[in-house]
Design a protein that fits this description.
- It contains 14 helices and 13 strands.
- With about 425 residues, it is α/β, with parallel strands linked by helices.
- Among the domains are: about 140 residues, Leucine Dehydrogenase, chain A, domain 1 (Rossmann fold); about 150 residues, 3-Layer(aba) Sandwich (Rossmann fold).
- The structure holds glutamic acid.
- Glutamic acid (GLU) binds next to α12.
Length: about 425
């Protein structure tokens, strides 16, 4: 998403580090370095004005060795097929790190949803799904929300796929509204999982969350939920931002009030009066104990890493930290809980939603949250142990676990024919 960082190259370099640890055979390494399937579509939508506009979209399936592929659909003006491929690769490792039976995928449409009416958004979604329909299926590839998409978009995806199948197929997509087979707890799942990861990180670092000062970049579903749950856990959230900019108050910000009154409004959360205004870049460098980047990729780079003061970074976004920044921060002793672990709560509850859909048997929210927390804690502890055993950083440890599971599955299955 950033103009100067090649995200696919970054994902491939991360894989190369894990491959070296695992002494992966070069053939297997190149299988994992390349997505299995990529579809690029250009499709027309008749806009409200009557004019025809053509949009470009993608669906990328990275690796299906461990099960059907899984991953969100992103609507954003800066997406491209390479970034979508990197995000699909990260989904593969993410599902493997938390050991749920999926491979990774991702989809995207190059569009600024702020420029669309609701009707246009629906038409764009239905046409896009029709174009990528042959790749999808409840046993094949299961989309979910990501940046720019939500439960309503998932409902249209489910309906469009079902119309073509001739019967209702709730399990083809997750993150749906509850009344269409969505799961309790799914909307909050990523943010909730981020805070479980934060609790574990704080414990290992001897940081009392009750006294911790937290900064969150991004006030979309992940950032806003993580900020709210961190506040409930007793932390002092001193800085938050949305796409328009950030606000800072060293005495703490009332997150619930900011969410209810300012989030999603035209002026954004910057309209909250009792705080100092900061830019998104200044926000990252604020004096705090914990930084949660929960916006877009490549935010923490070689240009700002040495000015970041947080001792713990929990990655709510996918790919917020470049490899150069990783190095600078780990030399400083900063603990980075990597995206493929920290933000896995979303896909974990997507997995629960899919299981509930396939069984037509639905769980209570408390059951969802307990099971989510259990998987997040166990996965965190497994990655933490691997980090200590390999004397490496947490990202490498998570990649080693995830890549090994995928490599083993790929090897066990063998190569057809
Ligand atoms: N888009 C989310 C992610 O990046 C969720 C994916 C899913 O639930 O399938 O993890």
């Amino acid at each position: 998403m950033s103009t100067h960082v090649d995200i696919l190259e970054m994902a491939r370099q991360q894989l190369a580090v894990a491959a070296e640890y695992l002494e992966l055979d070069s053939g297997l390494h190149s299988v994992l370095a390349n997505p299995q399937k990529r579809l690029i579509v250009n499709f027309p939508v008749v806009m409200d004005s009557g004019a025809v506009q053509v949009f470009e979209g993608y669906r990328v399936q990275h690796n299906a060795s461990r099960g059907p592929t899984k991953g969100g659909i992103r609507y954003h003006p800066d997406v491209d097929v390479n970034e979508t491929s990197a995000l699909a690769m990260w989904m593969t490792w993410k599902c493997a790190v938390v050991n749920i039976p999926y491979g990774g995928a991702k989809g995207a449409v190059k569009v600024d949803t702020k420029q669309l009416s609701k009707r246009e958004l629906e038409k764009l979604t239905r046409r896009f799904v029709t174009e990528i329909n042959s790749m999808l299926g409840e046993r094949r590839d299961i989309p979910a929300p990501d940046i720019g998409t939500n439960a309503q978009v998932m409902a249209w995806i489910m309906d469009t796929f079902s119309m073509q199948a001739g019967h209702t197929v709730p399990g083809v997509v997750t993150g749906k509204p509850i009344e269409l087979g969505g799961s309790e707890g799914r909307v909050e799942a990523t943010g909730r999982g981020v805070v479980v990861a934060l609790e574990e990180a704080a414990r290992t670092r001897g940081l009392d969350l009750g006294n911790a000062r937290v900064v969150v970049q991004g006030f979309g579903n992940v950032g806003a939920t993580a900020a709210k749950i961190a506040e409930e856990a007793g932390a002092k959230v001193v800085g938050v931002s949305d796409a328009l900019g950030g606000i800072y108050n060293p005495n703490g910000l009332p997150i619930r009030e900011i969410f209810q009154r300012y989030a999603g409004r035209e002026g954004g959360i910057g309209e909250y009066p009792d705080a100092q205004k900061v830019s998104n870049q200044e926000l990252l460098e604020l004096d705090c104990d914990v930084l949660i980047p929960a916006a877009i990729s490549a935010q923490i780079t070689a240009d700002n890493a040495d000015r970041i003061k947080a001792g713990i970074i929990v990655e709510g976004a996918n790919g917020p930290t470049t490899m150069e920044a990783d190095q600078i921060l780990s030399d400083k002793g900063t603990l980075i809980v990597p995206d493929i672990l920290a933000n896995a709560g979303g896909v974990i509850v997507s997995y629960f939603e899919w299981v509930q859909d396939l069984q037509n048997f639905f769980w209570e929210e408390s059951e969802v949250n307990i099971k989510l927390t259990k998987i997040m804690r166990a996965s965190y502890q497994a990655v933490d142990s691997a980090m200590r055993a390999h004397k490496t950083d947490m990202r490498t440890a998570a990649l080693v676990i995830g890549v090994k599971r995928v490599a083993d599955a790929t090897t066990r299955r063998g190569i057809f024919p």
